[in-house]
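pasting for ref
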Amino acid sequence: MEPAPIKIRILMVDDQLVVREGLRMLIENHPGIKVVAMASNRSEALEIIAREPCDLIILDLELGGYSALSFISQLRETAKSARVLVLTGSRDPDTHQKAAQLGAMGVVLKEDAADRLLKAIEKVYLGEAWLDRLTLGNLLWQMSNQDKDSVDPRAKKISTLTDRERQVIALIAEGLKNRQIAERLFISPTTVTHHLSSIYSKLGVSDRLELVIYAFANKLAKMPE
């Protein structure tokens, strides 16, 4: 008997009941994804996070008539193992960029087709950024132009990376999870975790999204076509 497929556990944060129920029905028709809880506001979301583990949080940016951008950092801090996927009706590139800067790994427009939302859920769960090329390009430009006087210190940081750490970075940029990286490099998942801790410390990044953006900006990995 084959083992049951692992389900992606979703917390949905949206202030409209009809939208929440509609998205839940859509998402749960897709194998391997389960909406474990729904919240209509910030306080409900934080209460749920405290008791219900989840892998991914779908956050409506227009929450209760106000922008939920400021809530992204709090979600990231409270649900450390969960990734944030933003759902918005706004096409404003500055809003998308700000969401990514605050820690959202993906942005989906409400007008997008249902299959794009499902694809975004899968990609973000696997550690890949679901951002349009303009947003990703702006983030890379911003990073490459920050502290131009500190180019040498940045190069010095990169020079401390081992060959194995560079391999891990390249695979992270491809969207591989720790277990997949371990299989690719013939090492244990625990060793991958140790390499990641060392990489974060050396480069001064705090999570996979920051690492991927750093890697693209500093030519440690190739951007996807």
